[in-house]
UniProtKB/TrEMBL annotation:
The keyword Cell division does not apply. InterPro entries: DEAD/DEAH_box_helicase_dom (IPR011545), Helicase_ATP-bd (IPR014001), Meiotic_Crossover_Helicase (IPR052247), P-loop_NTPase (IPR027417). Keywords: ATP-binding, Helicase, Hydrolase, Nucleotide-binding. Residues 38-233 form the Helicase ATP-binding domain. SMART domains: DEXDc. This is DEAD-box ATP-dependent RNA helicase ISE2, chloroplastic. Coiled coil: none annotated. One of its GO terms (molecular function) is hydrolase activity. Gene3D superfamilies: P-loop containing nucleotide triphosphate hydrolases (3.40.50.300). It holds the Pfam family DEAD.
Amino acid sequence: MRSSMDSYALRSVLELPSPFRSMFSFRYFNSLQSECFCGCYLSNINMIISAPTGSGKTVLFELCILRLFSKFLTQEGKCNHEKGVLKTIYIAPSKALVQEKLRNWNMKLPTWGITCLELTGDNESYNTKNIHEADIILTTPEKFDAVTRHGVRDGGLSFFSDISLVLIDEVHLLNDPRGAALEAVVSRVKMLSRSKEMTSSPLANVRFVAVSATIPNIEDLGKLIMKIKTFPLNICT
């Protein structure tokens, strides 16, 4: 789906529930964010978003995260959630990008009791309890591939049933030699989501949202989509 941002009126932060408005330091979403607002916050569709560097793609991830946690909002406007029951996996190509997002979200998200966990080669202090209780796991394709491949062999992937949202940053890396790890991770998530054991779990309806400044390898991405069979495509440019 391709459409022009020019036809979109800017959406206001006031359209979000009052507890979530403090997440953003501005009053209006920009053109890209306004165009994708309905897709990110008001639906559960899978999306691939291509937009220039500096256009505010991180906010789109944050809207998807807030949609997930809106399920825990009470009538009194409080966010009461049980740790780790609706899990987000954020995948970025480098530890530096993972750590940048971790710092950013650690400043914004603890307000609602949301816990972030870094899963990279630089952080080996995690354990099974940390992973189960984390609401957002920030990782690289290689690290998540290694951790989950080991877990599949040992039957230690019970936390997978709680995965509700997968955010993929710089998705064009599929055209990179490291793209195989990302493809393996996405395929593994989809494979487990279709298993009978996961039918009543959040994973059965896992959502994918991927962004990139450029997607020159759209054919490679298409092959991945065909391979995993269920990845509805919505491209905002």
